[in-house]
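Q: How would the structure tokens look for this protein?
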Amino acid sequence: MSQQRIVSFANSAVAIEYDGARATRIINFLFPDAPSGQAVLPHCTFRITAEPGNTLALTRDGARVFAFASDAEFADALLGQVSFHVVDKSRGGLVLHAAALASQGAGVLLVGGIGAGKTTMAVWLASLGLVYLTDEMVFVPDGTSLLVPFPRPAALKRPARPALVGVFDFDRNAGRCWSSDAVDLIPAAVLSSGNTEKIGRA
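A: Here is the predicted structure in token form.
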């Protein structure tokens, strides 16, 4: 039986249609805390389908987007598609390309372009006890100073791993993170669960 998850952010929304245990696992891994309010109608619909050869394919409004056999690669690509398209139709405020964390009721923003190190710094700061919120997008509604993060796993590019030696235990958390040759997807719950090594302390 087909299911649907509506992901909304910044007064914009997309729908994801899927069925089967494998697709359900991917959706629940990527978007366990994603806003799903029904006030905004989705402006596009993604569909996850199984294909021969253990491959999952993604279409958007009926047009094929990509296909992968690896769940981690599929999840990373789907995360990018949803993030782009939900922001593409955003309105009513400013969307920042930024990671965000919280500390003692205050927000910490890490603004930068692709490859600037936002995710690496966010994981490092989470290891110091800050609360991880997002590594990609923050919405500031018009007329406010409110920071609204887009909740998603941290998508850490694999070349960044050496920078986090002694900070984040990839081996111990391997069962809770999804990894491909290109990226480690680290759920917010992992970064907030005390499973990161504390640094800068005796």
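Helices lie at 21-30, 71-88, 118-127, 188-191.

The CA atoms of residues 14 and 85 lie 7 Å apart.

Upvote if useful.
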